[in-house]
């Protein structure tokens, strides 16, 4: 038997909603398919992302329904509405009367051909499947439908229990349907599916991510940006392209750190050059760049720095010429925050989003760095030649 067309259409909308949502946190890949007709899906449970991953992975023709704890998801109307509309959930008590709820709620669904998703652990665990309760298997036997073991790999890292979102790909591994299986047999199959999963990642990416999420990452982004405003030839955006793509969960704070440090570096540079004979090294700049910036500053004052993102002239050239021209510190800080800070923030957030989306291809991170180096070198060479 197959669910009705309205149920299938609603399931299709839910599936694509969660597919699109999870695409921006690393994506979901699926291995295997459910059998035709009603079935009981049993999966490990360690994250609130588990249900979203399953809804996005299971085909709409199965019109999956999910059992949810009534004392948590149905205790107030906002949770009840979200749970019912976005996951097609139905309430099941966790403490007394749970099997009765399963029989009453899931029985008609299974007879109508729905896939009913149950988490036999009853609550979120630590990532590996814990002890399975007998209710789901007793229900499947009484209605003569198969039990399908499913392993959710990566969800516990995407949204750990008691923690916040950490972009990461999820793999849903659908096992072989089982009839007459016990709770222990199904749990063993879920564990086997989980243990057989090998995450494909780059050792280099992991090392860079380890730096990016810690204090050294913030220090590196800040020091790089500060130095670039004075003398360092490589743009802060290059550092963000390396760090934010490796560890998108640190992208926001890295971006803010880089933007603030760049503006502070510009102010310090302005003060160093103001009324002094200081001449810091400025590699990969040209006399024509300095001449163009001098004309802009005389014509527009501190507002001239707004041309920097489009002109390709390094920020340090604007900083040094602004100091020698006598631009007020306050005006310079404000205009730099608008121009330089805004650009760094926008690009940093874009790079963070890219890092989230490409999580499933993390093994290609070294290749990405090579392409980044080639693209940056080509772009920088073009800018230098244009201003030579």
TrEMBL record:
<feature type="domain" description="Phospholipid/glycerol acyltransferase">
    <location>
        <begin position="39"/>
        <end position="155"/>
    </location>
</feature>
<dbReference type="Pfam" id="PF01553">
    <property type="entry name" value="Acyltransferase"/>
</dbReference>
<dbReference type="GO" id="GO:0003841">
    <property type="term" value="F:1-acylglycerol-3-phosphate O-acyltransferase activity"/>
</dbReference>
<keyword id="KW-0812">Transmembrane</keyword>
<feature type="transmembrane region" description="Helical">
    <location>
        <begin position="254"/>
        <end position="274"/>
    </location>
</feature>
<keyword id="KW-0808">Transferase</keyword>
<feature type="transmembrane region" description="Helical">
    <location>
        <begin position="344"/>
        <end position="361"/>
    </location>
</feature>
<keyword id="KW-0472">Membrane</keyword>
<feature type="transmembrane region" description="Helical">
    <location>
        <begin position="368"/>
        <end position="387"/>
    </location>
</feature>
<feature type="transmembrane region" description="Helical">
    <location>
        <begin position="230"/>
        <end position="247"/>
    </location>
</feature>
<keyword id="KW-0012">Acyltransferase</keyword>
<dbReference type="GO" id="GO:0006654">
    <property type="term" value="P:phosphatidic acid biosynthetic process"/>
</dbReference>
<protein>
    <recommendedName>
        <fullName>Phospholipid/glycerol acyltransferase domain-containing protein</fullName>
    </recommendedName>
</protein>
<keyword id="KW-1133">Transmembrane helix</keyword>
<dbReference type="InterPro" id="IPR002123">
    <property type="entry name" value="Plipid/glycerol_acylTrfase"/>
</dbReference>
């Amino acid at each position: 038997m197959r669910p009705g067309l309205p149920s299938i259409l609603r399931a299709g909308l839910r599936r694509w909603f969660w597919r699109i949502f999870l695409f921006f946190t690393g994506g979901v890949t699926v291995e295997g398919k459910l059998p035709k007709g009603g079935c009981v899906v049993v999966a490990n449970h360690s994250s609130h992302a588990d249900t979203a991953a399953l809804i996005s992975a299971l085909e709409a023709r199965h019109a999956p329904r999910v059992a949810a704890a009534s004392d948590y998801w149905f205790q107030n109307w906002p949770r009840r509405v979200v749970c019912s509309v976005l996951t097609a959930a139905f309430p099941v008590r966790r403490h007394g009367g749970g099997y009765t709820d399963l029989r009453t709620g899931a029985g008609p669904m299974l007879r109508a051909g729905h896939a009913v998703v149950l988490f036999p652990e009853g609550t979120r665990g630590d990532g590996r499947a814990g002890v399975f309760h007998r209710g789901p298997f007793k229900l499947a036997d009484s209605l003569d439908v198969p039990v399908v073991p499913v392993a959710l790999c990566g969800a516990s890292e995407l949204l750990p229990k008691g923690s916040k979102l950490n972009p990461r790909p999820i793999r849903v591994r659908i096992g072989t349907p089982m009839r007459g299986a016990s709770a222990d047999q199904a749990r063993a199959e879920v564990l086997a599916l989980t243990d057989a999963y090998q995450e494909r990642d780059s050792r280099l990416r992991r090392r860079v991510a380890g730096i990016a999420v810690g204090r050294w990452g913030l220090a590196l982004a800040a020091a790089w940006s500060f130095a670039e405003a004075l003398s360092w030839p490589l743009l802060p955006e290059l550092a963000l392209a390396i760090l934010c793509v490796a560890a998108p969960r640190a992208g926001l704070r890295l971006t803010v750190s880089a933007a603030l440090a760049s503006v502070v570096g510009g102010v310090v540079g302005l003060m160093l050059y103001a009324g002094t004979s200081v001449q810091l090294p400025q590699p990969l700049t040209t006399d024509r760049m300095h001449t163009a910036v001098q004309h802009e500053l005389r014509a527009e004052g501190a507002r001239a720095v707004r041309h920097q993102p489009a002109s390709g002239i390094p920020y340090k050239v604007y900083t040094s010429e602004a100091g020698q021209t006598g631009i007020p510190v306050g005006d310079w800080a404000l205009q730099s925050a608008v121009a330089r800070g805004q650009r760094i923030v926008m690009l940093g957030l874009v790079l963070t989003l890219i890092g989230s989306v490409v999580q499933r291809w993390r093994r290609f991170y070294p290749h990405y760095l090579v392409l980044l180096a080639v693209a940056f070198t080509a772009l920088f060479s073009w800018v230098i030649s244009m201003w030579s």
